[in-house]
Amino acid sequence: MELDKAAHMLRLRYVEGKKDQDLGEVIIPPLAERLGLEAQELGKEIESMYRVNSNFARKQRIRRDIRIKFVKRSTKDKILKLTNDKPLVILGKEVIVLKEIPKSIRKIRNQYCFLTDKLNQCNIKFKWLIPEGILVNWKSKNIKLETVEEAENFDRQHLRKEQQEGEHLSDENSSQSIRKNSQEHNLLINIENQEDPTEFEIITGTRRKTR
Fold first, then answer.
1. 4-26 pLDDT per residue, tens
2. Which residues contact 124 (CB under 8 A, 6 or more apart)?
3. Contact (CB, 8 A) for 66 and 51
4. Where are the compositionally biased (Basic and acidic residues) regions (predicted)?
5. CATH topology of domain 2-100
């Protein structure tokens, strides 16, 4: 029931406007224009529209999100697709259009944050699955992770492994650089200890006597 209800809803973020302003006057015209409909026609497709409290809004100190419930799911899906191709602008400001995710599913997804945070940092594409799990695009292959245990195994076998290999390579490069710098430093000391330092020059990490 909760999923079915959410399937008809959208959430708009960063929508400005005065406190007592009619949301329909602010939201419907730009949405109708994007859909190629008259404002009055789209108004009939909207069941409810109101601002909702959220932790995100409180922490960021922004206006509350706007939740819209449509009569038809197809209307919501069209808006999602169209705003994904081109951002929606309301009152001269770009807003974010989000799917409405039920609280029970958000709670489940929080268990996967240890992995999704890393995927975002590495710019690795993934998609949430319903009711649980994620689909990860890993090296041109789609890998389905439907449990937290599978997500942990993926993290351990792929992300951590590559990170460790990268750190090992970085350590090797650092050691080589240190050895090279040490050799050049010792060479310079030997040169400075000569009676006439101008008789020697550094050539690719070796010394050669000049005539």
1. 888 999 999 999 888 788 999 99
2. 136, 137, 138
3. yes
4. 159-171
5. Alpha-Beta Plaits (3.30.70)
